[in-house]
Write a structure and sequence with these properties.
alpha+beta, Jelly Rolls, six-stranded antiparallel β-sheet, four-stranded antiparallel β-sheet, 14 strands, 23% strand, globular, disordered N terminus
Amino acid sequence: MFAEHPSVKKENHVPTELEEYLFDLRGYIHLQNAIDQSHVAELNVLLDTYLDLEPDTWRGWVYRPSNRGNTRHLHNLFEIGEPFERLIDHPSWLAHVNRFVGGDDGLFIDESFADIRVQGEATRIHSGASKRRIRTQFRYHNGQFRCGQINILLALTNVGHGDGPTMVVPGSHKSNIKHPVFKDGANSLDEVPAAVEIPLQSGDAACFVDCIAHGSARRINPGERRMLIIRYGPHWGNDRYGFEPSPELIARLAPERRRIVQPLQPRRPPNEHLPPK
């Protein structure tokens, strides 16, 4: 349906020394102009065709769960079409993800979904290093990052102050102490001391380790906030909710992308497809 845009750069953007320093220090970096506006437009056009999907229903291999409030999530992004497949190994962040995950042995995407929200919606603060979860851990040893989950949040609309931007508590990916606000039950990060906004222009991406305390401000402006979330981890991970790629997607992906979506081919007996006697 869509052809790759001729201006797409194939070489991976290697993280700079400053980006590595800031990622280690703060737990996140801001990737400006991660994708071009023609790619943004393609993604939005295809996303529009799924907005009529009812809660707790499927269209093909794309699923919309029953979310609280007026926020809509669409899971299994890469099943929507080729412009989404292009994000799997996008050169703007693939080298960053490899470096921060420590992906010499390969990567795995354990979750991909669209987050679409309107005025009044927010994401309450969650995560934090004090939990010491292996799946979302931050670790640096002998010059190598070893992070359990690296998130790419890609903005498909401008998300500035008042638009419900992602917020984080810088440095909390190394904290031994839980933020006191967890005891207070704050609903959004607007209410959280030390939390900062990450404003994103359409096409920008935020790259952060999942154990940083994060969430979003409440959207107070009219209109719609659109984000795509892709979570990368080591190749031995598994899908957070048990979603699987369709055989059709696996068949059409280039080998490099297939290894990220399905690092290990399922091993099944040769007669698995036969009906029981």
